[in-house]
TrEMBL record:
Upper lineage: Bacteria, Bacillati, Actinomycetota, Actinomycetes, Streptosporangiales
Catalytic activity line of the entry: (8S)-8-amino-7-oxononanoate + S-adenosyl-L-methionine = S-adenosyl-4-methylsulfanyl-2-oxobutanoate + (7R,8S)-7,8-diammoniononanoate
Subcellular location: Cytoplasm
Full protein name: Adenosylmethionine-8-amino-7-oxononanoate aminotransferase
GO molecular function: adenosylmethionine-8-amino-7-oxononanoate transaminase activity
């Protein structure tokens, strides 16, 4: 039983639930049965998670980068409640509803100007699948089915479904087990590390040569703008993104930008592509779209992509999720966008960046640390060797913080509404991890 007043659960019930979870509930990138127990969360409010024993942790992950406004935000709660009083869901085939239309209006107004067509998906992975499908159908509609490969960058991550896995890093990514059954795309080396680094002319020439060599079969170029997320948390200079835009124009292929992790202000600009002052032909958004409340994503494209695609065989984009444009998700997404724009989100992100930068100063020089870097509301400690996930989590929990490391990376993406003190706690936890690596 849960003590509602204290937000705690009895030790016996907590143990029972965690035992069942470990034996029967599969978690992301985890074995079955589990080799280490998951922490049992019974409540989330503001930027804090409450565990079954009453422990409170500052969520330095924004629930995998999505809960930018924190938890139980009254504005977002009200949006879901109001929509629930009208309808929770209705099929989108042949029907539409005000929540979807209102969200589409906001996305068209908020994203780069050429993006005027909106396809709603039910997850970020599906949004990328749709983007890939758009590029392939775009060329099939023109009688060029041989243009079926995508140019992308090593170090990237775009999702866990099969189309997405094929454009993730094929060597150092998370999907090597499936490499023999995935589509074969064209991979350029990872861009040189460093948002402020001067462009490497040799690298730019290599990109150009690769695009030239495969121009006859390229359907598009797909990348994460400025920040490569789960593939390595790497930051790269906007000039490389501009070079990819130029190559897409030169070869007449769509530029697809995966803004699922970078969108809605995370990097310090509203969209990652804003750092390079350019627009894509196809763009994927998700994660923070609903403020972390519900699963939803969207793929936007230009008029040219949409009209060309639908002029060909099939006469339609061949995709249609059951829960496409779910009214609850669409309503809270609109409320989340309005809430973001009603605040000085840029100042919030700048404040997080300043605190992370100051508190992590010197971390890169510690033994066992390969690099420490910050961009926008993203702070990263990269170890020289893979970290012990459980040991790191126990360490940061001792600091009152929740982080989820992977591979060699321990990173934070705090909710934008964190106070200076809360962001400082997150930064201190990251620094403590850096100090522990050489112990």
């Amino acid at each position: 039983m849960i003590d509602l007043k204290l937000g705690r659960m009895s030790p016996a019930e907590s143990e029972r639930l965690r035992a069942f979870d470990g034996e029967h509930v599969w978690h992301p990138y985890a074995p079955m049965p589990a080799t280490s127990p998951a922490e049992l969360v019974v409540e989330a409010s503001g930027v804090r998670l409450t565990l079954a024993d009453g422990t409170e942790l500052i969520d330095g992950m924004s629930s995998w980068w999505a809960a930018i406004h924190g938890y139980r935000n009254p504005v977002l709660d009200a949006a879901v409640t109001a929509q629930l009083g009208k309808m929770a869901h209705v099929m989108f085939g042949g029907l539409t509803h005000p929540a979807a239309i209102g969200l589409a209006e906001r996305l068209v107004a908020l994203t780069p100007e050429p993006l005027t067509k909106v396809f709603f998906a039910d997850s970020g992975s599906v949004a990328v699948e749709v983007a890939i499908k758009m590029a392939l159908q775009y060329w099939r509609a023109q009688g060029r089915p041989e243009r079926h490969r995508l140019l992308t960058l090593r170090g990237g991550y775009h999702g866990d479904t099969f189309g997405d896995m094929a454009v993730c890093d094929p060597v150092n990514g998370m999907h090597q087990l499936f490499s023999d059954v995935l589509a074969r795309h064209v991979f350029a080396p990872s861009p040189p590390l460093g948002y402020l680094a001067e462009p490497d002319e040799a690298y730019l020439k290599e990109l150009s040569a690769l695009a030239d060599a495969h121009a006859h079969e390229l359907a598009g170029i797909i990348v994460e703008p400025v920040v490569q997320g789960a593939g390595g948390m790497r930051f790269y200079a906007p000039e490389y993104l501009r070079a990819l835009r130029d190559l897409a124009d030169e070869h007449g292929v769509p530029l697809i930008l995966d803004e699922i992790a970078t969108g809605f202000g995370r990097t310090g600009e509203l969209w990652g592509c804003d750092h390079a002052e350019l627009a894509p032909d196809i763009m994927c958004v998700g994660k923070a779209l609903t403020g972390g409340y519900m699963t939803m994503a969207a793929t936007l494209c230009t008029e040219r992509v949409a009209t060309t695609l639908t002029s060909g065989e099939g006469g339609a984009l061949m995709h249609g999720p059951t829960f496409m444009a779910n009214p609850l998700a669409a309503s809270v997404a609109s409320a989340s966008i309005d809430l973001l724009l009603s605040r000085d989100w840029r100042a919030e992100v700048d404040a997080i960046e300043a605190i992370l930068t100051a508190r992590l100063e010197g971390a890169a020089d510690l033994p066992g640390v390969a690099d420490a870097r910050v961009l926008g509301a993203i702070g990263v400690i990269e170890a020289e060797e893979p970290v012990d996930t459980r040991a790191v989590q126990e360490l940061v929990m001792d600091h009152g913080v929740w982080l989820r490391p992977f591979g060699k990376l321990v990173y934070a993406m705090p909710p934008y509404v964190c106070t200076e003190d809360e962001t400082g706690h997150i930064a201190d936890a990251l620094y403590a991890v850096a100090e522990s690596l050489g112990a």
